[in-house]
Amino acid sequence: MDFGRLTAFGLLFLTVGPVACYGAAPVVRARFENEFRCRNNVSVTSLAGNAYRVSGCGRTAVYSCFNPVGGGGQTTWGGGQLVGGYGGTTCIREADPGSGGPSPAASRARAQAESAQLAVRFDEARGATVVQADLDLSPLRLQCLGAPQIDAGRVLVVLSTAGSVFTCRCPALALVGDDTSVELPLSAEDRPADATTIRFDATPEQIAAAAAAFRLEVRCCDAARSVNARQSEVLRQFVARFREIVAATPPVAPPEPPPVPQPVPTAVPEAPPEPAPTPDVAPVPEAQPPT
Question: Could you tell me whether strands 155-160 and 172-176 are parallel, antiparallel, or unpaired per DSSP bridges?
Answer without folding.
Answer: unpaired
